[in-house]
Amino acid sequence: MKRAIILSLVCLLAAVSCKKKNTVTIIGEIKNYNNITLLIFDDKVSTSPDTIKVNNGSFSYQVQVDKPCIKYFILGNSRKELFVFPGQKLTIKFDATQLAGTYKYEGDGAFENTVLDSVVNAIMLLDLRYAFTQPAEIGSKYLDSAFSANKKHFEKLVGSKQTVASFTEYVNASIDYNAAAYKTLIGMQRYIKDTVFYNFMNSLTIENENYLGLPNYRMFLDYYIALHTNEAIQQSDTEKQQDPWFRLDERLKIIEGFKNEKIKEYLTFSTINQNLTILGTRNFDKYYNYFRKHNTDPAYSKEVAKTYAKKLLMAPGKPAPEFSCVDKDSNYISLKNFRGKYVYIDFWATWCSPCMQELPEYIKLQNDYKGKNIAFVSISLDLDKNSWKKVIAENKSGAVNLFAPNGWEADVVKAYQIYGIPTFVLIDKDGNIIDAQAPRPSSVEIRKTLDKLLKK
Fold first, then answer.
1. Which of 38, 226, 237, 438 is the most exposed place for a label (fewest CB within 10 A)?
2. What is the pTM of this model?
């Protein structure tokens, strides 16, 4: 009995020691704190950030990590990258009213995060618009030159200083995979099939589970799979633009070809969870069963279960969330104002190219069904109200045009679980969801759907 108690204590102490060893403690001091929500986010597993509680401008937050990784530190519309590692205790000080240039670090990883800020700020100066509008070869060479300069900048910052284990390796890898991701995307946008263009991948390790904590590596993997999915499906140009992110069967076949089990498991999770997050629960059971069969990570299981439960709130037949938004004359319009009519909602913004491309078809749809029992409602995620008013005046949209204050942070956007635009939602006459991912105005399906509803 005594031996059993001793063994239990040893196991308990070992567990506590292990937890402490893998714990990152982040302590913060915020000058001029203005009650803006403070978040920390690791998009490797979760689709939603964790909230950090702030008391009188101070906070202390602990998170478990088993390897060095990058996490996002978010205050309002400002997002920065933090390099964290097991056993770390880092203090962050900054001014909430003037974030740029005010971040100061103390403790473990202070030098590393100061350097990382400078590297990330340099990358932010990239002219991505230029890179993506030039011929593919020119855009690719521009990216090579820019990221090469960034690596030299990083090397100069570090100099001969001894850094935390893996920091130099991780930052260099992050720069390399960031460049590779953008070049892969250029190739996809131009439908480049010439393998010579993709020779840059020969210098990369495609499968390295140690880099799963790097957002840029994960982004590269996402584009890499999309590229090979495009090659597999051999669709028309229009279909290629809309897919390959949501062609689950083809994507999963590509993932099955990976050799590293940790990476394969992560990619299976991220692909299925991303699809569920954006497209909802329709026809999802098949993929949920696939996920359960191939996954062993409890964190992934927990996240997919959480996403599934959340998306069920927007499943067909569920009550559509109420909302209240202002029109161009500052009148508040609510969902209940349309009770007794079918409601077709367009979540959009003037800065969104696909949204603007869809706008002429949306106006045509409104005209074709004018006088029918359908309310067309457009909810803008613009931050600039004047730009929104200008576009709706110029295009003479017949929809009920509403403005959602705070863009992506608007209550209506969160309630309807909007993760990309344009998104269209169809609601029945009683205020219940018909389809939270309704067909676009340019599709043939939307007219078939509306005609069928109007016959009831």
1. 237
2. 0.83
